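Q: I'm building a small set of examples for a reading group on sequence design. Run inverse folding on the following structure and report the sequence directly after it, with nothing in between.
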């Protein structure tokens, strides 16, 4: 049997107003929610969250975007949930995202793509710890 994983999703500030319909889409697609919280990132914590992009030319713009308003951060758990949710979120660029994916539905542009999903299990655990989501531990 595949191991139960956790992944972190985030409704970014430009989409905070759409949080309810986004979470309905996610639940209707069969994902299991194990925790959620709303807050506003500090510049310092946002810079840490996206630390793997620190050498990219868009890093400053990305931090400004993430800190411009409130976010909804949530944890999903289930078998193979990291890649299943990433597929449901869609391509980084909403113009290239498959029809029906969250970024196709709610993303504005590649920079302001509206939704985040963890890239792998290691990133998910790091991002969950950094966000302080009180989530059920899928391993317990
Ligand atoms: P996300 O998948 O949450 O993680 C990295 C973010 O950087 C990505 O979503 C986009 O918001 C942003 N991003 C990725 N590529 C670019 C780019 N080429 N230009 C500007 N922003 C980008």
């Amino acid at each position: 049997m595949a191991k139960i994983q956790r992944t972190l999703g985030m409704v970014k500030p430009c989409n905070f107003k759409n949080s309810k319909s986004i979470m309905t889409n996610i639940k209707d697609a069969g994902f299991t929610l194990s925790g959620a919280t709303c807050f506003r990132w500090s510049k310092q914590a946002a810079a840490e969250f996206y630390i793997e992009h620190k050498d990219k030319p868009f890093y400053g713009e990305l931090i400004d975007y993430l800190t411009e308003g409130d976010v909804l951060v949530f944890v999903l758990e289930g078998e193979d949930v990291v890649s299943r949710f990433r597929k449901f979120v869609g391509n980084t660029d909403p113009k290239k995202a498959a029809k029906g994916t969250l970024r196709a539905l709610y993303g504005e542009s590649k920079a302001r793509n509206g939704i985040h999903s963890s890239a792998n299990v290691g990133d998910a655990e790091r991002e969950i710890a950094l966000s302080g989501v009180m989530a059920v531990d899928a391993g317990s």
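The pocket of adenosine-3',5'-cyclic-monophosphate is lined by residues 53, 58, 62, 92, 110-111, 113, 116 (CB under 6 Å).
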